[in-house]
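Late entry, evening session. Most of the bench is empty. Finally got around to the prediction I had been postponing all week. Sequence below, unchanged from the version circulated by S.P.
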Amino acid sequence: MIGPAGAGGKAFVSDAEAVIHPAGLEEAIPNPLKGFRAGADGRHPYGTLAKTYLKWCDLEAAAGDDVDRIRQVCQERWKDAPAHNIKVIPRVFLYWPRGRLKGAYWPTDLPAGDYSSSRFKDRLVRLIHKLGAAWDHDPRVAFVETGLIGFWGEHHRPSPSPEIQKLMGDAHTQAFSHKLLMQRHGWEFLDYRFGIYWDSFAHPDQFRHRRAIEALGDRWKTAPIGGETAFDWGRTLGADPTDAMVNHLDELTDAVRDLHANHCGWIAAYDRSNPAAAANAGLLQKAFGYRFVLEEVRYSRQVGPGGSLQIALAVRNTGSGPLYYNWPLEAALLEADTRRVAWRGRFEQADLRTWIGGDWWDHRAGCYRKPAPPHRLQQAFALPADLPAGRYVLALAILDPAGDVPSVRFATSQYFAGGRHPIGWVGVGREADQPDLPASMFDNPLDDHSLHYVP
């Protein structure tokens, strides 16, 4: 049914079928599970991810504490995240070497500094399983950083020994079957397909770290690559986040594109009132993670009640990585005047994790040598026989499974507040109108702060 994807303009090709090339969107947009890792207050224009550091002793003061203590601590920290459409990346740590949090945070019944005794190893495995029980099905959790060992939970001073790597790798794999995991160094945990948190992201002299991530090959297709920039040690990428954003955008973009980076923190603290920093941040946001361009939609212009609505799509991911969880893709018919949902159905064969973008970044040309392919999808939907006759707006939405509410925005200006994307008119039990929707119907996706999920 679907032919080559086009660009720009709209048309219908027959009395039976409409072909829509949705209007594009040049601006960057906030989308879940990707982009700038900012605070949990929802104030950053692109921030849908927040890092949360958790002391082991707060989650488990002694061996007898159960998983409910972890849930209680996290509920207090994360209770407002769903309303802001923010998901968290937790990391548990034992030791903080300096600053306000300087100190050791072992549980009271383990000696501080013990990373190697059999008692510690047993408790390490037990805690990881408790974390899995608390977080693996928590919709507020995006990804989990394995943490725990070394300064800041960054796997150095000390580094995890081969024995500890196996203990932690096996325990995390057993405890987490839904949430994706990230570890600190690309040369450790090599028997596990974890993602990476590089906490000196794009440092000019961090060659070993960058090469180690590159050596993981296609790991980025199934596990997130992220971390944070750093401005307090070594050869930094600028004096501070604003300087980095204004004067080092090319280096940042090359690192994001080359490593297929999904998110990054600290750099999110750029001065948003600085016009150059704000403009460049939009460019970097478009490079992080996924960016789904809806290139073409073909559908039945007219359907009888109880009939079959045929829909076919062509989508291109112009970002650097995938959407890491298989969230549902929905088609809906909206009432023309109220925008209320009259009918909705899911694309049963859609797996959005497979909507991969380009590969082999060419920093000189500023593009991937292997361009992003179009991803095509087609389905026939049976409409209910009691659907009232009338004129409806066909709309598409990617849903957060936590509440089955619209969440991911396509990169198109054809948008309704609340997260659905209007495509064109459909006639049900009546003669079809011209499919084109007037631009005056659309809302600005950048002005919509209503998206949320239900924990």
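Two things to note before I forget:
The chain has a mean pLDDT of 95.
The chain has eight helices and 23 strands.
Will write this up properly tomorrow.
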